Each structure stands twice: as structure tokens, then as C-alpha cells.
Amino acid sequence: MSCGIGIAISPDDGDNAATLMMNADAAMYRAKGNGRNTFQFYDQSMNATARHALNVENALRHAIERNELELHYQPIVDTASNAMVGVEALLRWRNLAHGWVSPPQVLEIARQAQLIIPIEDWVIRTACRAAAAWRDAGGKRLPVSINLSGTYLRRAELVPTFEGILDEFQLDPGLIEIEVAAATFNDNIELTVNLIRQLCDIGVSFAVDDFGAGYAPLLKLRHLPIRALKIDHAVVKHLTNDSGEKALCGAVIALAHGLQCMAVAKGVSAVPQLIRLRELGCDRYQGDLFCPPVTAEQISRLLKENLIVDA
Q1: Cβ(255)–Cβ(291) below 8 Å
Q2: Cα–Cα distance between 106 and 93 in angstroms, integer?
Q3: Does residue 117 contact residue 151 with C-beta atoms inside 8 Å?
Q4: Looking at residue 187, what DSSP letter applies?
Q5: Distances (CA, A) of 295 to 21, 74, 176
Q6: What angle do helix axes 189-201 and 158-168 make, rounded to 10 degrees?
Q7: What is the DSSP letter of 146?
């Protein structure tokens, strides 16, 4: 167990119980933001930080109805042929008052405000709509990977929600891949694994994201129908100048092939990284080297340029 402690001291931080508790609470959230399992004394700057966080949270509550959320799509590329074989859907939020809000901050705010479910509902529907539009425009089957949180995966309505959206757009379930961060399997694993199996039963595929960045229970994962292990950016970043990262990357690729699934490297930004990944036998990659995340319309233009292999 661990704890985050916030400390407020009278009289400087308040002269009554209510004020002291409020300020100690603000200090506690700062302690949690600093990595948990620590303590933080209150200071007045925390009020401004707390007000800003509350304003951003309130704005996020209305982001869907105001059409402020967007999905950008990063191509997933075949390492050998350098042809696009799919895309990963990535959430973006552009607020009129706060500008572009970083994806990690969006997700953290959504968790705290209990907005994960409606936001990820929107992500799934929007991604499926885009996949259907690409199919209808040119007849191309372009698989879409969607990142989902452990909170969303443990919903009782998970499978009916997917079935309803797939039916709405008349979309082949095989075109949708769910990406789940490896760390997700550290909490409530039996329920998570059971619901993932149910999704796979209706034809949706499954990938483990951020592999190599933290602990994942391999004894559980080996019983799942995993389509891909996605190698974390941090492993790929130092691939060409760090023998340890090369060994780790090679081990993840070997593990993926041993599980009879694909190895996908994330964050590939330089030609030497791609060369090394080819040497190690990595199946696919994504990153700015080929294309940064772009809009659905830009993906449509890539499709017209025939930079895709049918799935």
C-alpha cells in the first residue's frame, strides 16, 4: 500500500476547519500528481492550479456536444514493403479557451471527472464511422486500432455496445482492433480477460499496447487471442545506440512470434531505427518516419495514392 498526504497548517493556511481541509485536499492532489506515496505542504499557488483544473474539467464535460473532440489516425506500416496496412485512432481535444490539450491530460481529467465512458463511446463510434467511410469511398478494407482503458473494458455493456455500433455502420468486426495497455492487466485481470475474450468471439481483434514499458502478466496473456504486441516508444527510441534496448526489442519480437502474433514498433522516427527493426524481424511499425497522426480526410488521400495493402 502507499499513500499521498496533503498538509495544511493553521493559521497561515486557514483559521477554520473547513479552509484547512480544503487546502490540505489541494496539497494532497499535488502529492498524487508528483508520483504518489509522498507528502506535500500547501501553498497558495495550488488554488490557481486547482481552479484551472476545474475549468478544464468543466470544459471537457461539454466537449462532445460542442464538437471539440477529434480523432487523428496514424498509419501502421508493413516493415518489409513499407505499405500502410492499418491505422491507430488517437484522441485530440481542441478547446476554444485552452487550445490543444495533450492526450495524457485529457485522459487524466476524464478519469477524475468520470467521463471515460462517454468519451470512449464517442471514440469507438467515430472510428467505426471513419472505417465505413473509407470502405464506401474506395472499397478498401482499412483496419482501425482503438485504445481503450481498463475502466471501459470492465463495463457490463461492453459487447452489446460494440455489436450495436458495428451493426449501425454495417462494419466487419475484423476491421476493428482493440489496444489495451499492458499495465491494464495488473488490476481486475480475470474480469478484463473474460470481457476481451467475449469481444474476440464477435470478431474484434486485440493488441497489447506499450509492451516493454512495464509489467504484464504473461501467464494470462498467453491464453488470449492476441493479434499484436506493440513495442513501447521508449524501447524504440534508443534502439540504434543501446545494446540493451536492442536486446529487449529483439526479445519482445521473439515473444510475439512465439505467441503467434505480430510485433509492431511504435514511435519510429528515423531510418536507422527501421533498418534495425527489419534486422530483428519486426512485422510492422508506426511513427513520424512514415506519417504523423493525421485527419480522416488525409487518410482518404493516402488511400487514393494506393499506399495501402488490403487487410
Answers
A1: no
A2: 7
A3: yes
A4: S
A5: 46, 9, 18
A6: 30
A7: E
- Residue 102 DSSP one-character state: P
84-134 confidence digits (pLDDT tens)? 999 999 999 888 777 887 777 788 788 877 889 999 999 999 999 999 999
State which amino acid sits at residue 223. H
Indicate left, alpha or beta for 304 from its phi (over 0: left) and psi (-120 to 50: alpha).
alpha
Using CA atoms, how far residue 45 sits from 23, 26, 202, 268, 274, in Å, is 11, 10, 51, 39, 46
- Compute the distance between CA of residue 255 and CA of residue 272 in angstroms, rounded to an integer: 23
Q: Are 252 and 216 in contact (CB under 8 A)?
A: no
How confident is the model over 29-47, as pLDDT tens digits?
Answer: 788 767 668 899 998 888 7
pTM of the model: 0.81
Pick the CATH number of 69-304 from 1.10.600.10, 3.20.20.450, 3.40.640.10, 3.30.450.20: 3.20.20.450
- The amino acid sitting at 179 is E
Residues 275, 280, 284: CA angle, nearest 5 degrees: 75
Beta bridge partners of 308: 84
Which residues in the chain are classed under CATH 3.20.20.450? 69-304
d(CA 198, CA 125): 19
pLDDT of residue 51: 72
